[in-house]
Specification:
There is one protein chain. With 68 residues, this protein is an alpha+beta fold. The strands form 2 sheets. The protein has a two-stranded antiparallel sheet with strand order 1-4. Strands 2-3 form a two-stranded antiparallel sheet. It is globular. The mean pLDDT is 95.
Length: 68
């Protein structure tokens, strides 16, 4: 099973990972802010992840790690 993790304190919430995900299981959090005051990205359903790593490839700040 794939595992996706985000360094939420570094994420600026740009949303590139959201648009890159073919399974549409990443969203920008609406209820929380990180240390920098941004709403970070989060995964909504870890079970549906196919470990394609499109999200990690698109992230300009390299805050996403995908493990198979």
């Amino acid at each position: 099973m794939a595992k996706v993790t985000f360094l939420t304190d570094v994420c600026k919430g740009c949303g590139l990972c959201v648009t890159a995900c073919p399974k549409k299981i990443i969203r920008i959090a609406t209820e929380k802010l990180n240390k920098k005051g941004h709403s970070p990205a989060e995964i909504t359903d870890q079970e549906k992840c196919i470990a394609c790593a499109f999200c990690a490839t698109m992230c300009p700040d390299c805050v996403i790690t995908v493990e198979k």
